[in-house]
Write a structure and sequence with these properties.
The protein is an alpha/beta fold. The protein is 37% helix and 15% strand. The protein has six helices and seven strands. A hairpin with a 2-residue loop joins β5 and β6. It is globular. The model has no long low-confidence stretch (mean pLDDT 92). Bound molecules: FE2/S2 (inorganic) cluster. The site of FE2/S2 (inorganic) cluster has 12 residues, from loops.
Length: 146
């Protein structure tokens, strides 16, 4: 856990969830979120920052309640200046560049499926690179001849 004390200091209430229950509630974040949305009709904004799949399901949880929801997107970025297009995301049927137009967007307008597909684009290369460095650590690179 990081920033637990800092989050508690600026929150009326801090609810922690973990996949394995090692801290806080053993649940996905959407479970207490839905309970809050059911019990507190004054919630005016939800902000979700984290893995894309989590942000997608937070958006789907808040959508039926009509609660404005903001997500902070982290697509693949290359130049960070709006020139390369690497960080392109589809928001409300429009192409946006997360580096200059975001990274915060209206969660209910984000095309999470295309974002997740784009994030998987370099998985084989990432895996190969990880294995390369693991091999280096263990005394020998397994994917290149040096
Ligand atoms: S990172 Fe290149 S356009 Fe955003």
């Amino acid at each position: 856990m990081i920033y637990e004390e800092e989050m508690a200091a600026v929150s009326d209430e801090l609810i922690i969830t973990t996949d394995d229950g090692s801290k806080g509630i053993k649940a996905l974040v959407t479970q207490p979120l839905k309970e809050l949305l059911d019990s507190d009709k004054t919630i005016s904004l939800v902000v979700a920052i984290g893995p894309v799949i989590m942000m997608k399901f937070v958006a789907e949880t808040t959508r039926p309640y009509g609660v404005p929801t903001v997500v902070s997107l982290n697509p693949i970025m290359v130049d960070g200046t709006g020139m390369c297009g690497g960080c392109r995301v589809s928001v409300g049927q429009e192409n946006k560049f997360a580096c200059v137009d975001g990274p915060e967007f209206d969660a209910h307008k984000v095309d999470f499926e295309s974002l997740m597909a784009r994030q998987r684009m370099y998985k084989p290369q990432e895996k190969q690179h990880s294995e390369h460095f693991a091999g280096k650590k263990e005394g020998g690179c397994k994917c290149h001849s040096h």
